[in-house]
Model the fold of this input.
Amino acid sequence: MRRRPPSRPRPALGMSAALRPKARLLGPTLVLAMALPTSVLYSVGAVGAQLTAALGVSRSALGALPTAVFGTAAMLSLWSGGLVDRIGARAALLTLFSVATTAFVLMGLASGYAGLLAAMILSGVGQAMSNPATNLAITENVEPAARAGAVGRKQAGVQLSALVVGLAAPLLSGLAGWRAVLLAGAPLALFALVMTASTLPARPLGPAVRRAPGWRPARPNRYLALLMAFLAALGCGVSAVATFTTLYGQERLHQPPGTSALLIAALGVAGVASRLIWSRHAAALPLLSPLLRRLAAGAAVSAVLIWAGAELGPAALWIGTVGVGATAVGANAVTMVLIVRDRRSGPLGPSSALLSLGFFTGFVLGPIPLGAIADTLGYGPAWLAVAGLFLLAAGLAGLVLRHESAPRVAPPERGGSLGPEVTAAGRSGSPR
Done:
């Protein structure tokens, strides 16, 4: 009797077979998770003039709304990462989109400042959850080789929301009024809610079980603290560029308001492109901190070009502004790729949230002192201070390199800090 050759063991139904079709649908959902919480703020800014006239809101009160957004996001980032690790990516994204839907409805139906403020606080809740939830969704549902590109695409959603709101708001407000602009995001958030429910599994497939962290505020290890400081310095510089380039172009280069406003659009386009390009490039690099250092140094050169625009003309101003978008904005996505890939920064949810905290802190703190420098000493010292912040970030990236290139030994976690232990998502195949 002829013996039948031993059959080869069938490969387990892993991420490649079970999740790849859904991972293709996951991309737009993650882009919306990053875009919708920030578009709440952009929507209010786009109809600020109509809103102040209709609701009797003062300019100072309107200007306090961004502080409410980023202040809430920064405070909740101490806990949001642990919450995401505890409940999983699917539940976190469902919560995020529910909060975003509520925020848009509150804005659209607001009869006074209290409704706007409540919407901004909810937007801050969504922002605090967006990075840890999307990063965890990527590690649970996207193959390791495709994760860097997925991170870049979803990070580009922030700049993409600014572009979409900026282009659509004038048309929509002209057709249906300013409240239509504020309500427009609600159907998108509901669509993303349905997509999340149908795309993501309740728990990641595989034998690993995620360990739920405690409820104490997360504390970064030294590796993550350096990355937070790096993003804080970048955030200070980027927020100053986004806040003052339009005014600088009008006051020093005598550009018309419409032309100066296009600078922000150029910054946004460059930011979208750079996050896509640099994150994809990062996937092929063994170490990412040298790229971070080069991007920060390039941003410093770009800030000097903005300063030189007063003497060299509008071309230098435009090249410098686009340069900041192509370097500093893209570095944010590369940093997210780094923590998804190298889990020595700590468990993914808390470390993602704390990185966001660093960037939010820089974004909140940057414009006020740099505006004071411009008022007292002039634009020249202010732009040189921005260049100095970017150079500081380049120096911090050099310190990050020491940690990234060190041997990957995993000592035990101590005292609830974000030690280098690997979470379940990291064990399931994160590239090392």
Remarks:
- The two ends are 50 Å apart (CA to CA).
- The first helix runs from residue 15 to 46.
- Strands lie at 219-220, 417-418.
